[in-house]
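Example 209, ligand S-adenosylmethionine.
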Amino acid sequence: MRQHVNPLSKNFDEIERIPSFIEMFDDPKLPLHLDIGCAAGEFLFDLALANTNWNYLGIEIRQRLVKTAKLKVKEREIKNLYFIFGNANKILNDFQSTFITKNVTSISFNFPDPWFKKRHYKRRVIQPEFINMLSNSMLKGSLIFIKTDVKDLFNYMDYTILSNFNFKKIDKKDFSYSESFNPNKFETNREKYVVVNKLDIFENIYIKI
Ligand SMILES: C[S@@+](CC[C@H](N)C(=O)[O-])C[C@H]1O[C@@H](n2cnc3c(N)ncnc32)[C@H](O)[C@@H]1O
């Protein structure tokens, strides 16, 4: 399977219909966590099975992964987990998704594609306009989590988020993980690889003020 997909390709211009929360989840009133670039969604399956008091939504650009994840949700009858296929920038910028960004409690960007070449930076999922849209839509107090093993990408994401004055960095020491979307501190697939190989992990949490 292709590892890298160009999110700016015309293939992703059209987005699928976004169902309402009532269609996605058994209890749409639960707090919602959104994971952007969730790959096959294993991290979200761990979270959804362990924390039935949260709803989890994953967006992933590789269609086959989303198809398989959706089948797994159906087979296992998981009622607090949903996956959407497509380019997260396009999906969340679309008018039919406003209800998602307006109601999300937290969003994670876990080990997003680094796109090392400068001419490919525009393919990175975090872009100033995207952060601007999130800041206009997300409620005060909602959170953004970023995590990567690529220092340059971390600096870029940190700079882009903090250039928007509606987001402030939270000191991880003061953060209560037990009340977050990930109280058990489950690791994503990439994170497991990074931990086993003893690579650095750079992470930050931002709050919408
Ligand atoms: C390096 S993988 C990390 C996967 C997972 N978050 C983890 O930590 O194991 C990055 C994932 O983001 C997806 N992705 C990249 N750009 C995207 C975009 N614009 N919208 C949605 N998914 C995207 C890729 O297809 C890939 O599955």
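Summary: The beta strands are 32-36, 55-60, 81-85, 106-110, 143-148, 167-170, 202-208.
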